[in-house]
Structures are given as C-alpha cells and as structure tokens.
C-alpha cells in the first residue's frame, strides 16, 4: 500500500471506527506483513476514536444535565 492508501484507511478508521475493526479483521488473515501492520494501526486508531467519542458523549451528558438541573 502506498502512503495515500494508508492515509485514507487511517482517516476513515478515525471517523468511522467500525471500518478500522473491519480492516484489522481482513488483515488478520492476510499473509502480507505490510498489510498486517496497516490493519494493526487502523485498529489502534479506531480504538482511540471510540474512546474519544465516548469521552465526548459522557462530558456532553454531564454538562447538559448539570445545566438543566440548576
């Protein structure tokens, strides 16, 4: 994979985290070591994206429930 393709995979893994999981699963069964590395990185990016989205959701819930209860 060239740098542009890797960038596209990483970008979509961050925006839509299930794509990172799908890329990791497909790379898990592939024999190409470079593709396995891309899949592993996509999984890490997807996990970070999921954590950030959950954190933003929790903070959003806390902020809005505290404002409306006062």
What would you say this structure looks like, in words?
By secondary structure, the protein is an all-alpha fold. The longest helix has 37 residues.
Secondary-structure-based class equals mainly alpha
The mean pLDDT is: 91
Strand content: under 5%
Number of domains: 1
Termini separation: 54 Å
Query: Which of globular, elongated, flat, extended, rod-shaped describes the shape?
Result: elongated
Rg from Cα: 16 Å
Helical segment tally? 3
User: Tell me about the biggest sheet?
Assistant: none
Uncertain runs are none
Return the string of H and E elements: HHH
User: How many beta-strand segments?
Assistant: 0
Q: Give the % helix.
A: over 70%
Classify the oligomer: single chain
Protein name: Group-specific protein
Transmembrane segments: 7-29, 41-64
Keywords: Membrane, Transmembrane, Transmembrane helix
Topology:
Blueprint: H1 3-15, H2 17-28, H3 33-69
Helix pairs in contact: 1-2, 1-3, 2-3
Keywords: Membrane, Transmembrane, Transmembrane helix
Transmembrane segments: 7-29, 41-64
Protein name: Group-specific protein
Summarize the structure.
With 70 residues, this protein is an all-alpha fold. The chain has helices spanning 3-15, 17-28, 33-69. The protein has three helices and no strands.
Keywords:
70 residues, mainly alpha, elongated
